[in-house]
Design goal:
Radius of gyration: 23 Å
Order of helices and strands: EHEHEHEHEEHEEEHEEHEHHH
CATH superfamily of the domain at 2-154 and 186-215 and 255-272: NAD(P)-binding Rossmann-like Domain
CATH class of the domain at 2-154 and 186-215 and 255-272: Alpha Beta
CATH architecture of the domain at 2-154 and 186-215 and 255-272: 3-Layer(aba) Sandwich
Number of helices: 10
Strand order of the largest sheet: 2-1-3-4-5-10
Number of strands: 12
Mean pLDDT: 92
Distance between the termini: 56 Å
Structural class: alpha/beta
Low-confidence stretches: 304-320
Largest sheet: 6 strands, parallel
CATH topology of the domain at 2-154 and 186-215 and 255-272: Rossmann fold
């Protein structure tokens, strides 16, 4: 199958690119805003036609939750209108749309994990625009899989894990809210789950919504504490309430998602949140080590060029 991935430079898109390297079953086409404007109907149509797209995985989104309160039109354009453009193209070309949504579509006042068919009640502009995107996809008539996720992180881009590790290196103590409960999602695990869904369904007709995070439920304070511990940081993490850390957009107090449907449908086991966090931090440390080794090697080479290398007769490069 020919698979189009939008928003390929983000956390999830990057993980899908890693998977594609060794995938011999499918042909992957990776795009981002600089190569495909998914708000442009003509550009999307030309991409689908030229590449004979069978599946579109939409990783593109406006995710600046607080900034969306000041830019509702832009958030609606990216999170609702653009998915409709993709859905219409999928309907026309009989392709499958896999669309990433969010826990923010729920009100956050539950006391047990949200099931996929629970009533939505977004409390922010970001949540409302993502909910509208879901609605437009369902009304388009295309084959779709909407996958809601939460607390996404990876070894690339900006995310909570990397921010905590940075603060762990520069602060003696920090304050993190302890009255918002959910579950983190390692982008690698989500990418693997999307491929499992894709391989399970193939080109069959489908109109389904799923939830995916890692297993378990924790608070942001729990998450930050684990990051410091696993990352070897001595920074103290103090618990505070949401009222003590006001934000422009309201955060859900409870956004744990029920994972049973995706586990049964795709036949997958989902790792515990801590297990995946350990792997991500190991990946980050490995990347930092490689970067340090490359930097040291470059510095040694430059030092040789400037000081240690002696010009030879007739060697113009070294004689100048």
């Amino acid at each position: 199958m020919n698979i189009l991935v939008t928003g390929c430079k983000g956390q999830l898109g990057t993980e899908l690119q890693k998977i594609a390297i060794s995938d011999t079953l499918h042909h992957w086409y990776f795009t981002d805003v600089d190569t495909l404007d998914i708000c442009n109907k003509d550009a999307v149509e030309e991409c689908f036609t030229h590449n004979q797209i069978d599946v579109c995985i939409n990783c593109a989104a406006y995710t600046a939750v607080d900034k969306a309160e000041d830019e509702p039109e832009l958030a609606m354009l990216v999170n609702a209108f653009a998915p409709k453009v993709l859905a219409d193209a999928c309907f026309k070309h009989q392709a499958l749309l896999i669309h990433i949504s969010t826990d923010y579509v729920f009100g956050g006042d539950a006391n047990e994990p949200y099931k996929v068919d629970d009533t939505i009640n977004p409390q922010s502009v970001y949540g409302s625009t993502k909910a509208e995107g879901e609605r437009l996809i369902r009304e388009s008539g295309c084959n779709y899989m909407i996958v809601r996720t939460a607390w996404l992180y990876s070894s690339v881009g900006k995310n909570f894990v990397k921010t905590m590790l940075m603060l762990g290196d520069t602060k003696d103590e920090i304050n993190v809210v302890s009255d918002q409960r959910g579950c983190p999602t390692w982008a690698h695990d989500l990418a693997m789950a999307l491929v499992a869904l894709l391989n399970k369904n193939g080109k069959n007709e489908v109109h389904e919504t799923f939830h995916f995070t890692n297993e378990g439920q924790i608070t942001w304070h729990d998450f930050a504490t684990a990051i410091m511990e696993i990352g070897g940081k001595t920074c103290k993490v103090n618990p505070i309430t949401t009222d003590q850390y006001p934000t422009k957009a309201k955060r859900p107090a409870f956004s744990v998602l029920d994972l049973n449907k995706i586990k049964e449908y795709a036949g997958i086991e989902i790792p515990d949140w801590r297990e995946s966090l350990v792997k991500c931090i190991e990946e980050l440390n490995s990347r930092l080590l490689r970067s340090s080794q490359i930097s040291d090697s470059t510095m040694r080479s430059e030092s040789m060029t400037r000081s240690d290398a002696k010009p030879r007769r007739g060697d113009r490069t070294l004689s100048r």
